Amino acid sequence: MIEALKVWVINITIAIFFITAVEMILPDNNMKKYAKFVLGLMLIVVIINPIIKIFNKDFNFYSYTNKATSYMESSTAVTDIKKYKDINMLNTTENFKKNLEKQCIIDLEQSYPENKYNADIDIIYDDKKAVFNINKIEIGIVDKGVRNIRKIEINAKSVNASKRDILKGEQGDKIKRLLSSKFKISANIVTVYKLNL
pTM (2 decimals)? Predict the structure, then answer.
């Protein structure tokens, strides 16, 4: 038991000397914090390795690291990483879209409180530039007062109730200008319409 304790203390001392030497030769840049993180993990492994062996005699840290390394080098790891990255980007895009729509409605209701608004924004993520691009903004205006009766078209095959009347006057233009200046986009991609509910 004393011999095992002696080996453990020697391993910790060697690890600390090694970590100190590596930190001294590292340049002061962004890479240093990542190197310190990895070196800290190495020190934790050296410290807890004998403690784990007390509870599990068959524990071999090197076999676990070899399994992890082989998994990271395999093609399944690359596929899994790409799958998780795609799912994460899809969720991020959806959350960004919802937040942008909420912010758009808040801005419109603060600037023009006489109406209620609905927003539908089409965005896409540009991988090369790592930015979100707004392709289209559609703003629906709902009057707070008396609502218009919906226009109903009756054909022999089906009944169609139009829910949108595009605004082309001053009201639509001022909303386009507000959103264009707020989001630094062209007013041409903003569509404003009366929403008949």
Answer: 0.54
